[in-house]
Amino acid sequence: MRADAPVLIVGAGVAGLATALAAAPRPVRLLCRAHDGVGSASALAQGGIAAAIDPADAPAAHAHDTLVAGAHHNDAAAVRWLTDAAPAAVAWLEAQGVAFDRDEAGTLRLGREGGHGLPRIVHAGGDATGAALVRALRAQAQRASHVQWRGGVEVDALLWRDGRVVGLRTRDERGREETHHAAHVVLATGGIGNLFARTSNPPGADGAGLALGLAAGVRARDLEFVQFHPTALDLPHRQGLPLVTEALRGAGARLRDTRGRPLMDGVHPLGDLAPRDVVARRVWQACQEHGAWLDATAITDWPRRFPTVLAACLEHGIDPRTAPIPVTPAVHFHMGGLSTDLDGDTGVPGLHAVGEVACNGVHGANRLASNSLLEGVACGRRLGERLARLPWAARGQGAARWIERGPPLDPGSLAMLRQLMWSAAGPQRDAATLRDALRQCGRWHGWQARLAEALLLAALRRTGSLGAHWRRDALAA
Ligand SMILES: Cc1cc2nc3c(=O)[nH]c(=O)nc-3n(C[C@H](O)[C@H](O)[C@H](O)COP(=O)(O)OP(=O)(O)OC[C@H]3O[C@@H](n4cnc5c(N)ncnc54)[C@H](O)[C@@H]3O)c2cc1C
């Protein structure tokens, strides 16, 4: 291994950016699909970051809410570490130039979201928190002398030699391939929303990094746990749907059925602010009948507080200040992923994973709102600091080989696969539909179908309902 062999980080969302910045002074090459680093889920995040900052709050209370939302399937020690690390993660972001919203007295404004017992969500630019974060971290990364930015590339294979990952292959928009050698490779490639017909995720959240990690032999963990956001803007015939942030319900908006009756009355003690899986199933059920609406007409000061939702609604002819917003559940976040510890270690030498592509147990069976930007920042910093200290591996002499994820599906088959996943592995699942979907997947040759099979199998094996994984046949199982 050359003395200057860098750390290669795939992905420029919050997880990849935090890892890159914290790895200083070790040389880092940051690889991502868009030239300017846009296109990540991070940039779309609306609600904010959860942290026990208020004097009346405590990390233990944040941990408690995280465990309850995760149906206690979480790794409790990991949750304690993350919630303890949250206030410092917010302070670090401010030091990187993120201007969180403050009141006239200069105190951080704290929002409240579903599943949180107290207001503890810091936000920036109202509902444009993710964009503010990515902008600040990207500017820091572009200024940092140890970070080399390489946008406009797709990472499509890992290089393997002498029992470890020693590099990767990129392909640019013109199809030109390049081999990059590395001391360490980090996958920070985000989620899998685009395996489904309805998602709040950007098109790049396609599971490519997850598929590559699995091909390299990383163990999959909790793949069946997919979070469905209860309120995406219901636009017929569209796959990628704008999110209608949960912070609106925190500010008093109510879910209603077609006759204007409150949807969540009598369903859960927290009503409209019940955990996401509970609300998503109720909205899904209403959508199967006559539809579901979010009545946010009582909310004031839209342009300052919810500029992103206001703009998305107005673009589609809905004025949320005067009319209820039509909503549908949509795939939002993947709790499962490549099995790692809190250090991002995958168990495959030379390969690390962080952020949504990884599963270190903090989210359990269902993620608490606003905990994933937190995870990306806190775990990214932890991994980066560790990478800065890790010894260089000796240069291997053995034969190198490529680990590939395989050819992609053609667009027609991919559209059918997404529809299949939405109906079989959506908010409600049962054994017969999952088995049938597995049989249909077997007909397709393409890495997305293999990834879908892994998820369907995990959902089939978990015969009971837990968190976001809901088996309507659980009682009969
Ligand atoms: C609409 C929306 C709103 C959300 N709101 C919140 C919120 O308020 N609070 C919260 O905590 N969480 C929120 N989330 C979830 C949160 O944004 C994500 O879980 C988190 O940002 C994931 O960060 P990441 O860095 O792991 O991945 P991402 O931000 O998705 O970044 C992935 C990166 O990997 C790159 N990439 C992927 N595959 C390849 C490849 N093969 N080759 C090269 N590059 C590749 C992409 O280009 C991208 O740069 C929201 C998500 C969405 C979609």
Can you walk me through this structure?
Residues 7-373 form the FAD-dependent oxidoreductase 2 FAD-binding domain. Belongs to the FAD-dependent oxidoreductase 2 family. NadB subfamily. The protein has helices at 14-22, 59-69, 76-95, 129-143, 208-215, 247-250, 276-289, 302-305, 307-315, 372-389, 411-424, 431-441, 447-461; strands at residues 7-10, 28-31, 49-50, 110-111, 121-122, 147-150, 153-161, 164-172, 177-181, 184-187, 220-221, 226-233, 254-256, 292-295, 325-334, 337-339, 351-353, 358-359, 401-404. With 477 residues, the protein is α/β, with parallel strands linked by helices. The chain folds into 3 domains: 7-190 and 335-389, FAD/NAD(P)-binding domain, CATH 3.50.50.60; 229-331, Succinate dehydrogenase/fumarate reductase flavoprotein, catalytic domain (Flavocytochrome C3, Chain A, domain 1), CATH 3.90.700.10; 409-477, Up-down Bundle (Methane Monooxygenase Hydroxylase, Chain G, domain 1), CATH 1.20.58.100. Helix 1 links the parallel strand 1 (7-10) and strand 2 (28-31). The chain is globular, with a radius of gyration of 21 Å. The protein starts with 6 loop residues before the first strand and ends in a 16-residue tail after the last helix. Bound molecules: flavin-adenine dinucleotide. Flavin-adenine dinucleotide (FAD) binds next to helix 1, helix 4, strand 7, helix 5 and helix 10.
